[in-house]
Amino acid sequence: MTRHSDQPDRHPPSPDELPPLTDQASLEGAWRALMGELGFSAPQLWLMFVDGDRARQLMKVEELPERPDPTDGANLARMVEPLLDERRSCAFLYARPGGRTRTTDDLAWAHLLAAISDRWPVHLANDAELRVVAPDDLLGRSSGAA
């Protein structure tokens, strides 16, 4: 992430320091606190593992393709699903450099991640904004849609 030099050097909170995650608004607040000032040099995926209503661990995956392929979803699901149960869940944020215009690649990632996460809405971030992917954004779209 890029930080402006006139901003104080602030460290993001650890997941354990975040307030309880009870709904989409609290999840978005957590992502905003963790992301800090927006600005990305390359596409990246953030995974937040949640136990009950508490964020417990954060993982960042780098060196992602701009557009996922079907094996990306299968591999991610295979990695995450054994860690999930009735109490434990995972939230996703896909971030990339660039402006606020939502691309078909953004929606391809959102669709892939939404298929894995059944408890939390997917969030997208770019250099200008962080926002939730609404269910309407996913209607009629598939990870292979152009």
Quick structural gist:
By secondary structure, the protein is of the alpha+beta class. It has a single domain (16-138), classed as Cytidine Deaminase, domain 2 (3-Layer(aba) Sandwich).
SSE layout:
Layout: H1 24-35, E1 44-51, E2 54-61, H2 70-80, E3 88-95, H3 104-116, E4 123-125, E5 130-132, H4 135-138
Helix pairs in contact: 2-3
Description of the structure:
By secondary structure, the protein is an alpha+beta fold. The chain has a single domain, classed as Cytidine Deaminase, domain 2 (3-Layer(aba) Sandwich). Helices cover 27% and strands 21% of the residues. It has a five-stranded mixed beta sheet, with helices on both faces. Strand 3, helix 3 and strand 4 form a beta-alpha-beta unit. Helix 2 packs parallel to helix 3. The N terminus and C terminus are likely disordered.
The radius of gyration computed from the alpha-carbon positions, rounded to a whole number of angstroms, is: 15 Å
Q: Could you say which structural class the secondary elements and strand pairing correspond to?
A: alpha+beta
What is the CATH topology assignment? Cytidine Deaminase, domain 2
Low-confidence stretches: 1-9, 141-146
Task: Note the overall shape.
Answer: globular
Strand coverage percent: 15-25%
Which superfamily, in CATH terms, is the homologous superfamily? Cytidine Deaminase, domain 2
In total, how many beta strands?
A: 5
Mean pLDDT: 87
Region (Disordered): 1-22
Biased composition (Basic and acidic residues): 1-14
